[in-house]
Amino acid sequence: MPRNTSIKSVLIIGSGPIVIGQACEFDYSGSQAALSLKEEGIEVSIINSNPATIMTDKVIADHVYLLPLTVESIEEILKEQHIDAVLPTMGGQTALNLCIEASNIGLWEKYDVKVIGVDVAAIEKTENREEFRQLMIDIGVGVAPSKIANSFLEGKEAAQEIGYPLVIRPSYTLAGTGGGFVHSKDEFDAALSRGLSASPTHEVLVEKAVLGWKEFELELLRDTNDNVIIICTIENFDPMGIHTGDSITVAPGMTLSDKCYQDMRNQAILMMRSIGNFAGGCNVQFSVNPEDEDIIAIEINPRVSRSSALASKATGYPIAKIAAKLAIGYNLDELQNQITKTTSAYFEPTLDYVIVKVPRFNFDKFKGANTELGLQMKAVGEVMAIGRTFIEALQKACQSLETNRAGLGADGRQLRNLEEIMHSLEHPSGDRLFHIKDAFELGVPLESIRKATRIDKWYLVQIQELVALETELRRYQLNNIPKDFFMTLKQKGYSDIQISWLLGNVTEDEVYDRRKALGISRVYKMVDTCAAEFPAQTPYYYSTFEEENESVASDKKKIVVLGSGPNRIGQGIEFDYSCVHGLLAAKEAGFEAIMVNCNPETVSTDFNMADKLYFEPVFWEHVREIIELEKPVGVIVQLGGQTALKMADQLEALGVKIIGTDFQNMDLAEDRGRFSDLLKSLDIPYPKYGVAESAEEAIKVANEVGYPVLVRPSYVLGGQGMSIVINDDDLEKAVVNLLKNLPGNRVLIDHFLDRAEEAESDSICDGEDVHIIGMMEHIEPAGIHSGDSYAVLPPFSLSQAVQDKMAEYSIKLAKALDVRGLLNIQFAVKGENVYVIEANPRASRTVPFIAKAYDVPYINIATKIMLGVNKLKDFKIERKLQGWAIKEPVFSFSKFPEVDKQLGPEMKSTGEAIRFIKDLNDPYFRDLVAKKSMFLSK
């Protein structure tokens, strides 16, 4: 059946700000869906309040509405645009809930808008725990014994009937919010109260807990002819009891028997067909008894999910893109496979490799948080790695995490306390994977580890084999390692730096040179959806150690863009936005644009965004070999946050050109002490400061500059390690802790300007001219991280004299640092005095916000200047903002109710929203002004 030609305009509902449990995977899904619909000549409108995303960019949709996600905003759009259909399945739970709310008040009916991609009744069936349970019973799919409860008394009665252990599952919540396990009667009352409070309908499912069972997810697509295909089967490394977003996951499933797999497929298809008559994507979660492979259904989500982005990147099959086409009437056999360009989309992907997803946690930002994992998701991001074997992919994933690990152990960061290790195995937190390896190294038997973790034996055997390999390696010296054994180590995922640590007294470069001399180099394999059965047209690669290399370097002039790795607090989706625009600008400028990144949630790792995609760790060894193969004219590090920036010195040492501001000037800005010296030479005011390399030096400096002082390390992002202290004792503790966690770093001690206002500017410099793209005034005072502060564009209360000084200092610094591209500067303002706090010659988290507010493609402009193809005078820049734009920080403290929510110099927000006002008398804005006055008066 061809597409429904009556649908000429579609509204896509986004997911709003990034929060734990709903992150940039929906930016990817929404962007893909919008581009897919535009291919069909459909006019696409998007509503989303997140300014940091590509989804809210003019390159994605015809009309972008940066509005709060409310039914009032929806109606505002429906009055302005003629919308034929709404697609709510690309924006996570937020979009589905908003769709239901609009449906309940008759909004879609009033404006004659059709809901596509899902049946509203299907949402009700899947989100209402009792309806879902009853439906599963009716269709013959197993479920755990459970009872619904709408009151405290009903919950107590259900618990008494079912027996412990139990799980509480609130209805209509995201990422397990409000849910949890109850092991005994003593814990039940508090858990039930939490669950009932978390559910918007005051409803929970009290269910028998199947702790220790295995967990699987299936990603499905269905068309209007009721054809269903399974895109990917994902197995959780961790057993039931840990939210799938917090679990290590593996595709394809490694430990399923064929019979169990076929049963699971059949049940998933039956479940999808039973929840309504709709075409689109669906995610189904199952639990499997490891003893007899009995299967029970956990839940079904009639939308693209967190796992859909992972499955798309794992297989190369663009789920959201195809789901959007199915939603407008196409059938699977009418659509083309996007990778091969010859086969049908009605063709289940086949993997001849293994992918491993490892979650990224940020517990260091939530001091005092309960780090034990359970039903409520706590991860802030994730990485994905591709290898020929599970263990190769697992080691590559560990290298991708941005936690200073060189792989799975063998890097000097092992835990050696057996009691701590065993506690970690029984009470899982973010680093349990590493502690499993540590346990094997200490000789803990495999069966003891299996009992403590309930992880399938097959996975544990894979990790245990690493310990034997490392024992074998220690028998050799670098110059006599047999080539076959060296090759085995690399095929098992060992990095050169791990091998150097295991050998001792040799450097990473020496290991690299030795293996190159032995002829052991990475080769690159294509992700093709079909295990090489058909030729693929899309250049999407991963590395391994074999003979044949499938990535052939062209003779075109190339640019490599280094991505930002996993999302975490302080480095989020805004850097992916910057990377995507960098790729687009490079292609427009005539370069072959090559992307290197390992984040499956992002648009930058969409296989058709770059000319060539390497889904690889942004880890020096991997980046180095890609550069040696491709021989680019240069590498862009300015757009990928600290992940990319920290490689600038190694690239410089290797003789690789850094596109844009050179390494020496970036390093000058990053080195807090040298930067303060520069400010002094430019006669730019700055807080009194000193640099220390020990606690003793720090105390001496602090007494010279005067308390209170701001303590901060160089070369960090998101305010990591920053603190304000008021005496010698607190300073000593802060400095000792910093130098312990960031060895070799120098600490800057600034006099803290108490009750000062904070402001910032972003600008672009081409080496001659400087264009200030935006100046923002913060609501929160200096001392609260800029990422956690409300920021108003343009300033609303700073005097013209203050703004003129900010502009003057921005221009001076841009020229002094010889900036080519972007520069962010943060200021403290006290009265009419303006002080520079820091400068960052790179993309900042505020540039996407300014670009959306003014409707100017600033990253595109900056990239072309970095590449040297344009000067500022070549661009006609017209700003369109009427009034003011406000950046609102969004927090995920609900995941960590026990932590101190006090804001300070270290960033804690997980995302942001944008709000526009036209009048300074707006009640919302007046409240912010009152808040600012209160802060400054304290």
Overall 3D geometry?
A: globular
Task: Count all strands and give the number.
Answer: 33
Largest sheet: 7 strands, antiparallel
Which assembly state applies to the chains in this document?
Answer: single chain
Explained architecture:
The protein has 938 residues and is of the alpha+beta class. The chain contains 31 helices and 33 strands. A 7-stranded antiparallel β-sheet has the order 14-13-10-11-12-15-16, with helices on both faces. The protein has a 7-stranded antiparallel β-sheet with strand order 31-30-27-28-29-32-33, with helices on both faces. Strands 17-18-21-20-19-22 form a 6-stranded mixed β-sheet, sandwiched between helices. Helix 26 packs across helix 27 (728-741). The chain is globular and about 75 Å long. The model has no long low-confidence stretch (mean pLDDT 92). It catalyses: hydrogencarbonate + NH4(+) + 2 ATP = carbamoyl phosphate + 2 ADP + phosphate + 2 H(+).
Summary of the model, kept short:
By secondary structure, the protein is of the alpha+beta class.
Any descriptors?
31 helices; 20% strand; 938 residues; nucleotide-binding; alpha+beta; carbamoyl-phosphate synthase (ammonia); 7-stranded antiparallel β-sheet; globular; ligase; CPAse_ATP-bd
Topology record:
Layout (H helix, E strand, L loop, with lengths): L8 E5 L11 H15 L3 E5 L15 E3 L5 H10 L4 E3 L4 H13 L2 H4 L3 E2 L4 H8 L1 H11 L6 E4 L2 H11 L3 E5 L9 E3 L2 H14 L5 E5 L5 E9 L5 E9 L12 E3 L6 H17 L5 E9 L6 E7 L4 H10 L3 H9 L26 E7 L20 E7 L2 H11 L17 H9 L5 H10 L4 H8 L3 H17 L9 H9 L4 H8 L4 H10 L5 E4 L13 E5 L13 E5 L10 H16 L3 E6 L14 E4 L4 H11 L3 E3 L4 H5 L2 H7 L8 H8 L1 H10 L7 E4 L2 H11 L3 E5 L9 E3 L2 H14 L5 E5 L5 E10 L3 E12 L9 E3 L6 H17 L3 E11 L2 E8 L6 H8 L3 H9 L17 E7 L20 E7 L5 H15 L1
Parallel strand pairs: 1-2, 1-4, 2-3, 4-5, 18-21, 19-20, 19-22, 20-21
Antiparallel strand pairs: 6-9, 7-8, 7-9, 10-11, 10-13, 11-12, 12-15, 13-14, 15-16, 17-18, 23-26, 24-25, 24-26, 27-28, 27-30, 28-29, 29-32, 30-31, 32-33
